[in-house]
Amino acid sequence: MLAHLLAQVGIESVVLEDRSRAHVEQRIRAGVLEQPTVDLLDQLGVGERMHREGLVHHGIEIRFDRQRHRIALSDLTGGKAITIYGQQELVKDLIAARLAAGAPILFEVENVRLGGLDTQRPTISFRDDGRNETLRCSYVAGCDGFHGVSRPTIPDGVLRTFERDYPFAWLGILADVAPSTEELIYASHERGFALHSLRSPSISRLYLQVAPDEDLAAWSDDRIWSELRARLASDGWSLADGPIVDRSLTPLRSFVVEPMQYGRLFLAGDAAHIVPATGAKGLNLAVSDVRALADAITLHERTGDARGLAGYTARCLRRIWRVQDFSWWMSAMLHRLPEEDGFAGRLRRAQLEWLVASEAAARSLAENYVGLPFS
Known about the structure:
- The chain is α+β, with helices and mostly antiparallel strands.
- It has two domains: 2-62 and 77-163 and 253-370, FAD/NAD(P)-binding domain, CATH 3.50.50.60; 164-252, D-Amino Acid Oxidase, subunit A, domain 2 (D-Amino Acid Oxidase, Chain A, domain 2), CATH 3.30.9.10.
- 37% of the residues lie in helices and 26% in strands.
- The chain has helices spanning 2-8, 21-26, 35-44, 48-53, 73-76, 87-100, 150-153, 221-232, 282-303, 307-310, 312-334, 342-357, 359-370; strands at 15-16, 32-33, 55-57, 60-64, 67-71, 82-84, 105-106, 110-115, 123-128, 131-136, 140-142, 160-175, 185-187, 194-200, 203-210, 244-258, 261-262, 265-267, 273-274.
- The strands form five sheets. An eight-stranded mixed sheet has the order 5-4-13-14-15-12-16-19.
- A hairpin with a 2-residue loop joins strand 4 and strand 5 (67-71).
- Helix 12 (342-357) packs across helix 13 (359-370).
- The chain starts with a helix and ends in a 5-residue tail after the last helix.
């Protein structure tokens, strides 16, 4: 995304990827795109397949006590919506467009090392197809995830870390069966949270709240479907099941580092922050980061004004902490905590009842869910 944004204004870049093209195009990840993300993809000219194959949702459903409550996202936000489009599909589109433009992406690079970050000409050394290579850059964008090399390269004492581990994880499945719903269902149940999402008209994505140390091997297909039916149960509605083609266990956590930059290195996405999956914000927050970074680099290259670069962290953190709060709030409201007593349970129920009864409360959720403006 960053490379495409820079190319629009004539700034060259090189994209380095340590996995194969096939791997990154097939890796199953999130699939809820906020309205600002969709609009940016259109601006870049890479949204055609997304509009053709993606699923536009104008609402979501909150379910508890076997009752169904619709949050009308578009009605509450002046027509904004979300689009269901798998992250791997978005990655395919971005890679294809970049290669079609003749711009460089180097796959399966090894031994990546960063140097001279506190100078105006940092370097990236790596091994590509058996050869040692070095790039001299004006800027380095660390979009390499939580386990990448960028953040650990920053000297000790520079970064401050904020994190919280949640006492639950998500058991996620991809099933070869048509979804049993037209919009996402967020279900709060005494046995734990469940989510019915979608990937296409014929593929369903579903999640169950489980313990962080849950053993996936203990969950047979029959057990998974039985638990999903129990937690998603509603009068007059039934869940269709089918072959499970992928399953995963994802612990939920919050993580933020400040600042998100050191010299000419700028962190973006999971390299700098992780949010609980409940609010469907991880991908969209990464897009927001690189939009801010592209603006800052463009301003500096065109005018020599470095204020955008200096203010990159502050600009990003305003949105990051808003999203952290929203994701934490949704997680706390919908999940049953292991140590939850009767008082805490009643508080969660009061939150759910207020959300579905108050237009103001529903609008607050809707505005955050469809995506706050990048600015």
